Amino acid sequence: MRALSADSLVAKVPLVWRALATALLLMLVLLALVEQRARILRGGTEIRLKTVPIDPRDLFRGDYVILAYPISTVETDAAGKTDFERGERVYVTLGRDEQGFAKAMGVTRDWPKVGDGVVVIAGRVTSTSTCATNADGAFDCSGRRNRLRVAYGLESYFVPQGEGRAIEMTDKARIEVVAAVSSSGEAAIKRLLIDGKPVYAEPPY
Question: What is the C-alpha to C-alpha distance for residues 181 and 188, in angstroms, rounded to an integer?
Answer without folding.
Answer: 7
